[in-house]
Structures
1.
Amino acid sequence: MDYATFVPDFFKYITPDDCSSNDLFLPEKFCDMQQDNLKENCILTIRNGYKMHVPYDRNNRKFGEMGALFRDFGLAGGEVLIFELVDGRNFNLYIVGEDGNEIDYSAIPQSCQASSSCGVSTYSTGWKFVKFITNAHPTDDEVTIPVEFKSLTDQWKKKDIIMVYKGRFSWKLEIKKAREGNRTSIKGGFIQFRNALQLDVGDCCFFRWINESYNEFRVEIVKAAFIAHAE
């Protein structure tokens, strides 16, 4: 099952090697799908007004001159960049920190920017990202959502349902809130979800809301083996 609103995008897990480089390689599948749309000069825009012009190398499928962005936002590896293609030249860019939350964007003056930037808290325009570490016992069908994501769980009812999508596949997960410790958990459906995606302990799941709904999410996976190799 596909979700209703499709936006061409990709996400990139950032390694320390990426941060020490001036280039960022893009996913081959995304580049091939958008080969007729992507221009040689692109603009990356962050919600605080930060804009950066970067060259796109079509032959090698990479952005150049990314080092300034890594330095400006203090990226060191372990973060995730989400690129949303607006048109062939413009991308919206979101930065997810190691804690799984989209970072608070401070005002960063920078000489190569096309416009001035201002400080922005992610909560001023809505919650967008979260990750869970799959460390549950294989027979458990319950995952407790960390309290750091209370801004999201406050939007759910005491008993609720969320839909999670990856490509044409979808899963229905049951949400339940407990008075004790103000705890919110995924109470049902997680075993099927975990088995279908072949998740292992230490894998990171990035859940991204879609269709402006707190009950519909797209999921992307970063495998534990990849993270360990990158560190």
2.
Amino acid sequence: MNKIKSLLIDDEKHSRKLLQKYINDYCDEIDLVDNAKDVDDAYRKIVNHKPQLVFLDIALHEETAFDLLNKFETIDFEIIFITAYDNHAIKAIKLSAVDYLLKPINIEHLVNAVQKACKRIEKKESTNHLEVFFHNLNQKENLNKIALPTLTGYIFIPVADVVRCKAEGSYTQFHITNRKPVLVSKGLKEYEGLLSRSNFIRVHHSHLINLNHVTEYFKGKAAYIKMSDQSSVEVSTRKREYFLSRLESLKA
């Protein structure tokens, strides 16, 4: 297999040196051809080298990775983002199936991210996941699309179409308007964090629901909710007060 031509962009010299060492030591499939420290330098080197993969720090002096990427009409290279902060950008990244590394860099995470990027490059997969990422990043509050991993790639679903998510052991089953359920190999807890700003709440240890799809609420000792897909979802005693307060906030 030919090595993947790659570029490393980070404004911190010691971070560049450390990541370069990790890549050289643990990622045999990568040919790291150059590095850059700011947006202008990075733009010139991407145009010159035409890399297949870019390791890209989100913070670049007074500018950001997104200032750099906005200079390109189309992005025809894979990206692994690097950041020291778990913020709104990271939430958009997670929802969009784009890979990222948190500083300090974990070698196992680096190797996994590189392997996934290399597979996408080898298969000549489209960069739809990057388009979804930029779309989500531009949403100040709610994130609009989510990438659900499947055996053959990803399904990109509008968040508004997700009715509910159900825990299935260490997996999560997504129930979506007008399509069959999708089972993904990530736990419900992760999606609870990602979707919390999009009117999703945990009403039971096994159920995460979209409040916008609640059609009825039935009180009583065994309280439950009717959803727009005609399903019934139990509301646990511990979650009931919070659920009712969120329902009230929707009326405001």
3.
Amino acid sequence: MAHIHRPRREQKSLRRGLTRFEARLPSSVDGIGFHAQITATVHTEPPYPQSADELAAAIRATLRKAAADVSKECDPADLATTRDVCGRHLAGRRLLPTTPPVAFDAKAEIDLLPDDQAAVNALLAALRRQATADAVRRQQTGSLARELADPAAVLTRWLDQQPDRWGSPPETKAIKEIATVFAQYRPERERTVDHAALELIRDFLASFQDPPQKRMVYEVLAAGMHHAHRPDHAARAEALLDEHEPADAPESGV
């Protein structure tokens, strides 16, 4: 009878060692970690190749490492995602490399201890302050750049700063160069390859001052769009040709 009940005792002892055992898991932020309570389920029937205590210790070590491997990429401010990611990872069945192998999977309850939660709150508050300061700075920079893209605004600013030098303003060339620099400013969201391409096309079109030349460029552009099977774009390019039609010559005698 004792021999019959021994496997049950092993299973019960193993279950105790694998129920809600604790783990300290790293997060993507140094110094802040997750608190996990992991419960493993063994799917291999006894007899086991090791004692229940040895087997439980090996499974706990395996699961702690498995959980840490994914939690270290998780944001401590996003517990919901951390729980999903770790839950999916631990739910997969694993084999302990014993002879014979022991199969198991697990589930986890993940939270932040009070000190870690306080650290997350402090970090979020600091990030919000920094984000606000950055947004204000970007807004001020953009506003200043739009204003000073006009040479007249550059001169006005200079005169405001140098009120006693009305008789010796900077050279027109220098003022225009400064305005050109500000005109080239683009917010970060516009610093993409597509925006750079638009700037290139705009500069290219602006390099043709003669109306017949501009008309030729738009004709080539429309032809290229037709060739690329973009008839709607080609039609819009052809519509722009009307803007470059030479003005009708005045009738004689008028």
4.
Amino acid sequence: MNSIEKVLWILNRLGEEPYELNLTTLANEMNTVKSGVHKTLGIMMKQGFIIQNPETKKYSVGPALYRLGKVYDNRVGIWGITKPIIMEVAEITQETISIGIREGDHAILAYKIDSTLPVRYVEDIGIKYPMNGSAIGKVLAAYHDTERVKELLNATKFIKHTPNSIVEPEAILQEYQKIRDQGYAISDEERFLESFGIAVPIMNDHKNVWSCLCITGPKVRFTSEKINSWIQLLKSKANEISILLA
């Protein structure tokens, strides 16, 4: 098989039971050496087409496939599962509610329901968020592979968009630890002035995080009382989504 055939074979194979396979099994079924398959898997992981369970070392299809398939969106995928839930959250809060996913090393806005209020927070589907200055970007980075995150932080020169922007790698790592400890991320005017966001992780059945539930809007509407209430609401709804996805 050539390189393209290998990629397509792997994607098709991981779309069949048991939906997770390790390197040895894939190489044996492809009747090829493990080194070549490992290289192909590495490229596919980098692009977000597959993911690897850090505990079992098995590979499965990744979040990049969600964004490529409108059919998936319209049928049984995460949007079909989450839409009623985020519509409920949007109705309760009256703010913009979104689902962020991680594709490789990038945090992506996958789905959203915009606030109907005259002044609201609006961004385009598919936008990539920085890992230091957005609720979605920070929460997905906080639960990403630690060593890979350190590599990215050391290789990236962050822009201080506002006085609240966190740009030093050590400070960002401390922020990630805080996020993991409390179970949510807050972005308080870190990308844009007068904006506020809260994101909570959505875990799959392996307790891995590659998606999150987020609320964003003008900071003036995010009172202390609402922030505390909405954090609990998001956590509850993210848990519902996790159960449905499992």
